[in-house]
Design goal:
The strands form three sheets. Strands 2-1-3 form a three-stranded antiparallel β-sheet. A three-stranded antiparallel β-sheet has the order 4-6-5. It has three domains: about 50 residues, no CATH class; about 80 residues, Alpha-Beta Plaits (2-Layer Sandwich); about 35 residues, no CATH class. A hairpin with a 6-residue loop joins strand 1 and strand 2. It is of the alpha+beta class and about 170 residues long. Helix content is about 25%, strand content about 15%. The protein contains three helices and eight strands.
């Protein structure tokens, strides 16, 4: 499924040469074919079973803090991906969500990276343009002094080809 000598974007599933480090569409980090296969295998294993219940005896980490309504959205997203969660209110919280306190979204340490990635992707997906313009929809204009390559995101002095990835315009 994945070629081991190439890199892939876990968000866009785009394929890149081995020396490229960031996705041209979303700007996220790229993973090798081996890393992508490992992520895929771990996801399949997790999705095969039920959502695991967490206990306070496990090694747990806080991955997000916020208002109850926001944290509940992320809790549901992670439950759909079979990642177990706990909600923990801070000292200002009454536990019902009406007192203005913040809540922590807690997951197992081994699920933290994947859970954070899923939440970041959901924020990116639902908050279009919140982080500024993406170079993924860049259009090459030969009349400007500086261009952004839509394939790799490299910013360069306008030329007929990207000096980083070799894309011809």
């Amino acid at each position: 499924m994945y070629e081991h000598d190439l890199k892939y974007c876990p968000d866009c599933n785009d394929e890149y040469r081995a020396e490229i480090e960031k996705c041209g569409m979303c700007g996220g980090p790229l993973f090798t074919g081996l890393e992508m296969e490992a992520r895929s295998a771990a996801r399949k294993k997790r999705m095969a079973g039920p959502v695991a219940e967490l206990s306070i005896d496990e090694e747990l980490v806080v991955i997000r803090r916020g208002k109850l309504a926001e944290i509940k959205v992320f809790e549901k997203l992670l439950a759909e991906q079979h990642i177990g969660t706990l909600l923990a209110g801070d000292e200002n919280s009454c536990g019902k969500g009406c007192c203005g306190g913040n809540f922590d979204l807690v997951v197992r340490r081994e699920d933290a990276e994947e859970a954070s990635h899923l939440i970041d992707e959901e924020i990116r997906r639902t908050a279009i343009g919140a982080d500024g313009n993406s170079h993924g929809d860049a259009v090459f204009n030969p009349e400007v002094a500086e261009s952004t390559c839509p394939a790799c995101g490299h910013v360069f002095k306008t030329a007929p080809e990207c000096p980083d990835c070799g894309l011809c315009f």
